[in-house]
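Dear colleague,

Thank you for sharing your sequence with our group. We've completed the structure prediction you requested, and as agreed, I am returning the results in plain text so they can be pasted directly into your records. Please verify that the sequence below matches your submission; if there's any discrepancy, let me know and we will rerun it promptly.
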Amino acid sequence: MKKIIIGLSCVLLLTSCITREQADSRLALGCAAAVELFLDDNFTIKEIKKKVYSTPTEFGTGFRKVNLFAIESDNWLDIDKEYSCVFAEEFGFLQATHQTSIYQVKVNGKTYGREGDKILGSMEDHLRLEEVVDNAMRH
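Please find the predicted structure tokens below.
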């Protein structure tokens, strides 16, 4: 009986692991949602052409950066743009869980989120940013 329980526990842990690719995919969804929150009126992300993931050193350990190369559009004008998001992230034991929070997003020359202990932008923007990103990454 003990061997069965151990075996089932191992299978459960192995099937519930979150891969780096799965985590990055969630981060890209959160980043796109964060970017759209701060785009100029009537503009949206029409297409994401490329996603680049990295581990930035300037923030310390536990951070992941997502650069989105996209087409921003208002249905009249299409513009190639690059956006970046930095997330604080943590994997649980054996990568069974993945917890993230948006740290910073750069859109059209402006930075929102946090820098150290400071909030960049208004408190309202920051709260909306966290809510939008959390909702996007849940799906």
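Summary note from our side: The radius of gyration is 18 Å.

Kind regards,
the structure core
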